[in-house]
Amino acid sequence: MNTIDFNQVYSEYANRLLYIAFRYTQDRRWAEDIVQEAFIKAFKKIDTIEDTKKLGAWLSTITARTSIDFLRSEKRNRWLLVDSTKMEPTMSHNINGGNTEEDVAIRLFQKDVDRSMKNLSKEFQEVLVLKVKYGLKENEIARLLGLKSATVKTRLYRARKQLKQVFVQ
Predict the structure, then answer these.
(1) How far is it, in rounded angstroms, from Cα 120 to Cα 99?
(2) Measured CA distances, 151 to 90, 138, 160 (Å)
(3) For the chain, which residues make up each domain, given as ranges?
(4) pLDDT tens digits, residue range 53-74?
């Protein structure tokens, strides 16, 4: 295999990877950080590339996975925002600029869900927000709230059931 000039690789693929990271994060600064992280990961494993024709796809995959990992960690780091009035702007659905009618329908549905969640008990709201809006797993929620995992699962089940009844009627 030929040696790979990493400076050339960077100049050739940096914009493409920035675009990929931005599509995930919708934030240019985060996207730039993710691209840097992706290039560091790639640099460490560059010797594992067997076919240099697939370098772009390989880098794109690394960037996409790094973006997803970053978003997951950001969701987990923001669990302290429990007040739904503070969470709503930060955790709202990412609107991709595609279909305006669909975007409006999604926002209206989110408002209906948020309003309905206010009718749930505080215990149900707590676990549901951590699960749905922040993507935490049951055992993480249990550890965070000092509960048993079975208690969290029961509360999630009951909270979803109550919400479903509101929307079925």
Answers:
(1) 32
(2) 28, 9, 14
(3) 6-77, 84-168
(4) 888 999 999 999 998 888 877 7
Question: What pLDDT is attached to residue 75?
Answer: 66
Q: Name the DSSP letter for residue 133.
A: I
**Helix, strand or coil, per DSSP, at residue 13:** helix
Under 8 Å between Cβ of 127 and 141: yes
- Tokens of residue 27, six digits: 């934030």
* Domain 84-168 grouped into CATH 3.90.550.10: no
What the block records as the tokens of 84 is: 């739904």
Closest to 137 (Cα-Cα) out of 114, 157, 160, 153: 153
Query: Binning pLDDT at 50, 70 and 90, where does residue 89 land?
Result: very low
Q: Rounded to whole angstroms, how far apart are CA atoms 162 and 157? A: 9
Fold assignment, 6-77: Rna Polymerase Sigma Factor; Chain: A (1.10.1740)
Residue 93 DSSP symbol:
P
